[in-house]
Amino acid sequence: MARARYTALRRILLLFMSLMVCMPSSIGEALGQQDMFFERSKASIVTYKGKFDFSVEMALRREQHAQGLQHRKYLPPTDGMLFNFHEDRIVNMWMKNTPISLDMIFIDAKGTIVSIVENTEPFSLLNISSGRIARAVLEVSGGTAQRIGAKAGDRVLHPTFGLS
Questions:
Q1: Which of 13, 52, 67, 103 is the most exposed place for a label (fewest CB within 10 A)?
Q2: Is 58:99 a contact under the CB 8 Å cutoff?
């Protein structure tokens, strides 16, 4: 009787382990990019060249942070993704599964740009750090920061920062 119970438990354990191997490695992978819902919002960057408006997807939750812009083959020049981390900290990003170059604009809680990393390398697993305390990151198409003249000290207008 004990041997039969042991064999049954072993089979269940083996079945469970084989199912775990077949499972996707991330929530984004499980849902698929097209199934992940990102709320849309408007954000503006104010530089010496003027005010530039963007339509942004909001990455507010951990699984949205993990998914980000992975697998996107194109990002229109007036679109982006705003990651709100809900706390002030050094922010670290990467380009895993991201086939397009991005500019990462790191922003503090007041909406001030603290640093910018331009033209990130697609698919890179290298750490991309804010280097300073930030609350959020606005990812836009590579080359956008240069095109609009964005630099540290400029402002991002969005309700996340109490500005619109």
A1: 13
A2: no
Domain extent listing, the chain: 27-161
Nearest to 30 by CA among 75, 72, 73, 63: 63
Contact 154, 111 (CB under 8 A): no
DSSP 98: -
Q: To which CATH superfamily is domain 27-161 assigned? A: Protein of unknown function DUF192 (2.60.120.1140)
Cα–Cα distance list, 51 to 16, 55, 80, 101, 131 (Å) = 55, 13, 15, 23, 25
Q: Which of 110, 107, 104 is nearest to 126 (CA)?
A: 104
